[in-house]
Write a structure and sequence with these properties.
Shape: globular
Helix content: 25-40%
Number of strands: 11
Radius of gyration: 18 Å
Order of helices and strands: EHEEEHEHEHEHEEHEHEH
Strand content: 15-25%
Structural class: alpha/beta
Length: 271
């Protein structure tokens, strides 16, 4: 059996419900879990590393508040809670650029706890998985995240950013050419890039996903809901590929789509 975890980043209090419904109804109807990396208290002025406004803010509609907690969108919260195949993952706190590339344990801990408190206050279960904005974690952040979460999902891991006590496990992972590894009670999962991306060729995207899933025991498929709606308008070709992916995943008898939480609790072989 091979396992697939679908991770969609950047859901926040400003995300239109109809966008998620349009994208993920084919997954929900097939009982396929969708892991939403939710920003607990989104910054309305969040910038990319290049200094541009983040694409997930296209629907902020003149909001003047500096941040907006997820609980301030009761329609979105109700929708997510009513559809049990949505699994909420903590995605930073405000999604400030490189907000966890910091050295102060106090600042890091405060953001982690604030984010978790807002998610649980909105009625979601305490998240077991953490995703850092732009995949940037300092050495101190890794330590603080590992104290609180069972899974860290990232595009890559860099030796110089990891706690030195983690180096033996990391080097062993590198020697095995393994994408996933474990430190203590924490799983560290890497993904093969954003295979579902508006920057890729739509004609070859599904074949690349199939090839990747066939070559891995556990594949984390990462995408971003807002990329399917440039300037707020649906990209029908891109949405079609996402829905074809749902059909493929549902039809493969030796592929099981799971949540991060299920993987953490399962004892499945990672590699």
């Amino acid at each position: 059996m091979r396992y697939v975890i679908l991770r969609d980043d950047d859901t926040n209090a400003l995300t239109p419900v109809e966008c998620l419904e349009r994208l993920y109804r084919p997954f929900l109807d097939r009982n396929l879990p969708v892991n939403l990396a939710v920003i607990p208290d989104v910054s309305t002025n969040a910038l990319t590393p290049e200094g541009r406004g983040e694409g997930f803010l296209f629907a902020k509609n003149g909001t003047r508040s500096a941040t907006v907690p997820i609980g301030e969108n009761p329609t979105l919260v109700k929708y997510l809670r009513e559809n049990s195949n949505y699994n909420v993952v903590q995605h930073g706190c405000h999604h400030d650029c490189f907000e966890f590339d910091r050295k102060s344990p106090g600042q890091i801990a405060a953001r982690l706890e604030h984010g978790t408190e807002l998610l649980t206050a909105a009625g979601f279960s305490r998240p077991v998985t953490f995703v850092a904005p732009h995949d940037k974690l300092s050495r101190v952040s890794y330590r603080e995240v590992a104290k609180r979460f069972e899974v860290i999902s990232s595009g890559w891991f860099e030796l110089e950013r990891l706690p030195m006590t983690w180096w033996p496990q990391y080097l062993a992972k590198k020697a095995r050419h393994a994408p996933h590894w474990r430190v203590g009670n924490t799983l560290l999962l890497s993904h093969p890039g954003c295979l579902l991306s508006a920057q890729r060729d739509f004609g070859s995207m599904l074949n690349e996903i199939i090839r990747t899933v066939n070559n891995r025991k556990v594949t984390v498929l990462v995408t971003h809901w807002w990329e399917y709606f440039p300037n707020g308008q649906p990209n029908e070709n891109f949405i079609r590929v996402l829905h074809q992916t749902a059909e493929y995943l549902a039809s493969e008898k030796d592929v099981k789509v799971i949540s991060f939480a299920e993987l953490a609790q399962s004892g499945y072989d990672l590699n």
